[in-house]
Amino acid sequence: MKKTYKIDVDCANCANKMEQAAKNTAGVKDAVVNFMTLKMNVEFEDGHDAKSVMKEVLKNCKKVEDDCEIFI
Amino acid sequence: MNKKQKKMLARILIAAALLIGFNFLPFTGYVRFIFYLIPYLIIGYDILIKAFKGIKNRQPFDESLLMAIATIGAIAIALTGDGDYTEAIAVMLFYQIGEWFQSYAVGKSRRNISDLMDIRPDYANIEVNGKLEQVDPDEVEIGSVIVVQPGEKVPIDGIVTEGSSTLNTSALTGESLPRDAEEGDEVISGCINMTGVLKIKTTKEFGESTVSKILDLVENASSRKSRSEEFITRFARIYTPAVVYSAIALAILPPLVRMLGMGLPAEWGTWIYRALTFLVISCPCALVISIPLSFFAGIGGASNAGVLVKGSNYLETLSQTKYVVFDKTGTLTQGVFEVNEVHHNQMDREQLLEYAALAESASSHPISKSLQRAYGKEIDRSRVTDIRELSGNGVTAKVDGVEVAAGNSKLMDKLGVKWIDCHQAGTIIHMAVDGKYAGHIVISDIEKPHAKEAIRALRSAGVEKTVMLTGDSRKVAEHVAADLGIDEVHAELLPADKVDKVEELLEKKPQKGKLAFVGDGINDAPVLSRADIGIAMGAMGSDAAIEAADIVLMDDDPLKIAKAIRISRKCLRIVYENIWFAIGIKLICLVLGAVGIANMWLAIFADVGVMIIAVLNAIRALFVKKL
After folding, report:
1. Which of B73, B189, B225, B396 could form a disulfide with B209 if both were Cys (CB 3.0 to 4.6 A apart)?
2. CA B438, CA B419: separation in Å to the nearest integer?
3. What is the rounded CA–CA span in Å between residue B540 and residue B69?
4. Whole-prediction pTM value?
5. Residues of A in contact with B57 (CB under 8 A)
6. Domain ranges of chain B
7. pLDDT digits (tens, 9 = 90+) for A6-34
8. CB-based contact, B223 to chain A, within 8 Å
9. Does the pLDDT of residue B485 top 60, yes or no?
């Protein structure tokens, strides 16, 4: 399953860090952060609930870049 | 400017004003330190907080932390030394100015590019009880009748049921010539209605309409990252830690060596200062921002010219194109048959065409249609009797009581009529009237008006080889190829043979060059996906083509292929300029910093200045009009 989320982040490098953080979250198969359109495409692994995974993703992103937001 | 940017601008201005004002203060020592702390905290408090959080979250190589260390370090040196705090605060100030500018520039270009692609209709008009009501296009069901007034965008694909008008398709195709639309015509969403009121019966939902598809495609395009972007991401991941460790080494090793090995004074202050300049240069932001921004601008500029690129990676591949393989029908030619010549006719040209059109009047074959079009008058079926179709040969019929035969040479042989062969390529219709040979009509698919120019433009854009694949006969194919100046032709191919031929060419092409296949998206999806890069033409409204291709040309003009290549070349040139420029300046500044020639000011330039220049350079990719 794939979903797209709107995000808010200030710098391109931070966007890359968010992408890494999202990729390393359990339940996420792949994630791409597009800094130019401020969007995050997340592909979930089967059997995971998108909502709860995204909460973890947000938590992990906050860890690497405090000043970011994902509109879940 | 958004709220965040306004607040930042205010902080920058206040801090700058204080910094200048404090220069005239007579205080020294700790009082001076406390005064200077005010602008420092105003401009840098968020950086300090972020740096602290970074340590807490174990993300030490955060640029905030680097800035915090660098500026606090500079303040410490000033406190113990000459009391010149200006440098530390200025470093923070310039860093924030850079961040502010980046945020402003990126926001601005984001808006610019989305304005360029602003084809999203906001509403649809529906007539309710004789009055027009504006509704969300998403809510309009298939088969509803919508009203489009002059100056409005067509919101949903459909068929005109009432009215006639001219449509401006430039937002979709980049083509400035308006298109006529009248009753019964299909219109696609995203066009602007210019002159008359149109009533349109929708044939698709909004989400499935051309305009939604295009927007979706372009918006997601920059998510497919190119190799250069991946390189930069990897580079940034190594670069920052590497510079930080070198900074630590630079702060500790030389003083120790001086002290222990050479018996000289350690000069800790000098070396720590040099290490701090290192930290300021260590931010990879210029690179990380400018590369995706260049691609984004390139894709935006291309879509404005009617070239949809589905991903940054495709733009990159397109720029390396050396071989271009064409499908013939519908790509280089119009796919519409037309009567070209009439040869060896004993009677009037008009008369012969009249006989041919009438004899073929029962058929709906493209060839018969072209004869009927060439005749140009209403066909009176009552004049034709005894129509007999001889499959694979032609037709015989009685027109006004006269025996007429129209068909290929086999038909003539069968009828025992002596025929004259034609030297021209194309489909030949031999005519026999009243049992006697009456000449032949040459029918051929006509080349697109810009086809010849397009091949020439490709060559001047650096394409080494052009190849044409077609299912048509060898004679026709060779004729078209020679006329257009195409290097290689393969004729009489079945659709599956085209894939084989493309594979063969992929083997033969030079290692670094890429092969592009251009088709009209009908029947050639497998070839489009097999080539390094698939380009579909005239895709307006054709879902299959948009789906299968990597690059979609919105109109039929083959000239756009060369333009697309030039756009991609320009974009990639900017990308490489930025990569070399940013890495180059940073490395030079690192070396100068290490030997003590560069001070903090130069370091700030290496960080912020380079980024600003790289961002401005990236924006250039947006301008593709003159390419």
Report:
1. B189
2. 9
3. 56
4. 0.78
5. 63-64, 66
6. 1-116, 124-220, 334-447
7. 898 877 778 888 888 899 999 899 898 88
8. yes
9. yes
Phi-psi region of B219 (alpha: psi -120 to 50; beta: other; left: phi over 0): alpha
Q: Given B54, B63, B219, which is nearest A37 (Cβ)?
A: B219
Cβ separation of B236 and A41 shorter than 8 Å? no
Cβ contacts of B284 on chain A, cutoff 8 Å? 13
Domain boundaries, chain A: 2-71
**Does the beta carbon of B296 lie under 8 angstroms from any beta carbon of chain A?**
yes
Question: Minimal Cα–Cα distance from A48 to chain B, Å?
Answer: 23
Alpha-carbon gap, residue B290 to B283, rounded angstroms: 13
Query: Residue B460: what residue type?
Result: S
ipTM, interface predicted TM-score of the complex: 0.78
Fold of B124-220: 2.70.150
| Phi and psi at residue A4, to the nearest 5° | -115, 135
Question: B327, B445, B520, B556: which one is catalytic?
Answer: B327
Q: Which two tokens stand for residue B528?
A: 């489009």
Give the whole-angstrom CA distance, residue B214 versus residue B545: 12
The 3-state DSSP class for residue B334 equals: strand
CB contacts of B53 in chain A (<8 Å) are 66
* Amino acid B201: pLDDT: 92
Class of domain B334-447: alpha beta
Q: Which of 2.40.420.20, 2.10.109.10, 3.10.20.90, 3.30.70.100 is the CATH number of A2-71?
A: 3.30.70.100
Cβ of A63 and B50 within 8 Å? no
